[in-house]
Amino acid sequence: MTTHSDPIRITRATTRKPRPKDSELGFGTVFTDHMFIADFEEEKGWYDPRVEPYGPLSLDPATAVLHYSQAIFEGLKAFTGRDGKIRLFRPHKHAERLNHSARQLCIPPMDPELVLKSLTTLVDVDREWVPKSVGHALYIRPTIIASEPFLGVRPAKQYLYFVILSPVGAYYPEGMNPVKILVVDKYVRAVEGGLGAAKTGANYAASLHAAEDAKHAGFTQVLFLDGVHRKYIEEVGTMNIMIRLGDEIVTPPLGGTILAGVTRDSALTLMRDWDLTVHERPISIDEVVAAAHQGTLREVWGTGTAAVISPVGELAYKGERIPINNGRIGELTQRLYDAIVGIQYATAPDTHGWTVEV
Ligand SMILES: *Cc1c(COP(=O)(O)O)cnc(C)c1O
Fold it and tell me: Domain tally for the chain?
């Protein structure tokens, strides 16, 4: 079994790709010069951790992941701080969640220290790719796929772990922009006993139809309701959701159908630090609509690594359009964004020890 003390082989790329200017970066289209790889076989465990030049994977067409979707991933970021140092944001929490997803999909877990080492080693090799301007970052995508060439339904006996890196631009080039969200009751994303709490492509495949319908109707995102009653708010599908009702901040509990977002956890921790009234409890869409009618619905925002905090300017449900804070960014929404981004770029003290220097 491979442990973090096993040496990581590094094969450097002989040619370097041109690196776009920070101002030209979008999201997820540009990749760096190297990738991290490790293999798993039943007899050996995870073995041969290595850094290689970035390039295509060669897979047999019978490879299990291509047929039965046994795959998981993570998404985190590295930032260049104001002091010029490169830091990862909460990598331990992401390594922990990778193993949580692994257990759900019968994928063998990895030593969290090896995961951490893979991230710091790869980011270090490609460190000149980490954008330097505030708002820009290096997105890190660890992935595990079932790599055994085998057609049959059972957990695979071989796996591939890889990590790729993508320099990304500011999620909001013109500043934070409130989004319009359609609340759907025709489709569901996940049900209790399903894969909703795992970060796996299958959940994204299940969300596409709803997202396309919403896009055609002029909305940016979809808010899913619970799969049983189609009543309780779950999540946006790429983001967790938080709602400020009067002086209470509510977010749906982690009941197995939604993802345990790291940004969700960061926002909850900060708001508790600030002595705000925060509850993880079931909240129905009817409660939100009633609050809007009574004038107590103050702010709604999404949380996720890509956008950090995403203000919601409008919710639409059963044909009714519900404006939130007159479509403007709420005060707490902005405060959370500034606080998290401040820690990420080292302009604010990291009192919780969330960042890891590379
Ligand atoms: C990744 C993800 C989130 C956000 O999680 P973060 O750790 O905050 O980036 C929320 N929902 C789903 C379904 C996700 O895959």
Answer: 2
